């Protein structure tokens, strides 16, 4: 009888384990050196770095001290250890958050910056409630009112990171062609366009439309996000979501490739002010004004 494959560890645990191993290497230490410095067993350190066990905050503190890690990175590592096995706001919204998207939302909850290219729908962090409902009905036409409201509540909770004393920095590229699809009706599209204009005025948010006149571009039709974690760039991750699954790109060359692609497309996109002008035009066209 063949053993069932073990499920992949949560991505937060993988990211934390990877970073601790990287910090050990940067300190010029082997795992045996770390054993001597921390008193932890070699198997424990190996399992931590390979994300094969829950990572305890006390062990992170020991390892970080041995590697000379100080705040603010130490604070980030300890927070990750505390939250590495939690689901947070997703527990209450499991009915509307796909399993493969939950790790992304957890990562998003403590990322310092998110870059997103969207070619089909407006970025989730910028969707108004009426647009959220319309998108949900596309994927599940028989959704109940309770499910629709749960989808809205989840979006609203995620969007809270965009405001406050230490808001998430957000860069969004929107392919203009996505506005050709009237999601939820003309009034919803107009409301959504007005909201994008309003949000783009915030200092921490940059929105750019990739206009049709830019022509074909590399990566056209491919939506993805890059999540960044200062001051620990080695934990940055790229994410691409499909219909039934998602791919996490965790290797540095993969993340860099996505970041480079984002910058190339951004260079061809409208400026933030020209984007606001274009969004105002698109909203007016859809509303018939």
UniProtKB/TrEMBL annotation:
One of its GO terms (molecular function) is DNA binding. Pfam families: DUF5753, HTH_3. This is Transcriptional regulator with XRE-family HTH domain. Gene3D superfamilies: lambda repressor-like DNA-binding domains. Coiled coil: none annotated. InterPro entries: Cro/C1-type_HTH, DUF5753, Lambda_DNA-bd_dom_sf. Residues 22-74 form the HTH cro/C1-type domain.
């Amino acid at each position: 009888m063949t053993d069932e494959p073990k499920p992949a560890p949560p991505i937060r645990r993988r990211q934390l384990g990877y970073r601790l191993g990287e910090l050990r290497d940067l300190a010029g230490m082997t795992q045996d050196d770390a054993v001597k410095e921390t008193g932890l067993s070699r198997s424990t350190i190996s399992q931590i770095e390979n994300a094969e066990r829950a990572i305890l905050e006390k062990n992170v503190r020991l390892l970080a001290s041995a590697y000379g890690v100080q705040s603010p990175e130490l604070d980030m590592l300890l927070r990750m250890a505390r939250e590495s096995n939690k689901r947070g706001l997703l527990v209450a919204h499991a009915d509307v958050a796909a399993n493969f998207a939950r790790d992304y939302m957890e990562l998003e909850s403590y990322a310092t910056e998110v870059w997103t290219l969207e070619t089909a729908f407006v970025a989730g962090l910028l969707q108004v409630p009426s647009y959220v409902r319309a998108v949900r009905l596309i994927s599940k036409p028989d959704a109940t009112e309770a499910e629709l409201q749960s989808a809205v509540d989840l979006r609203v909770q995620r969007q809270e990171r965009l405001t406050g004393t230490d808001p998430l920095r957000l860069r969004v590229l929107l392919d203009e062609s996505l506005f050709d699809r009237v999601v939820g009706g003309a009034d919803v599209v107009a409301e959504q366009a007005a909201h994008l204009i309003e949000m783009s005025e915030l200092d921490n948010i940059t929105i750019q439309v990739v206009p049709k006149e830019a022509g074909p571009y590399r990566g056209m039709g491919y939506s993805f996000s890059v999540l960044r974690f200062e001051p620990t760039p080695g934990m940055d991750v790229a994410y691409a979501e499909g219909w039934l699954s998602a791919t996490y790109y965790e290797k540095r060359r993969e993340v860099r490739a996505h970041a480079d692609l984002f910058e190339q497309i951004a260079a061809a996109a409208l400026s933030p002010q020209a984007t606001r002008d274009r969004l105002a035009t698109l909203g007016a066209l859809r509303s018939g004004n």
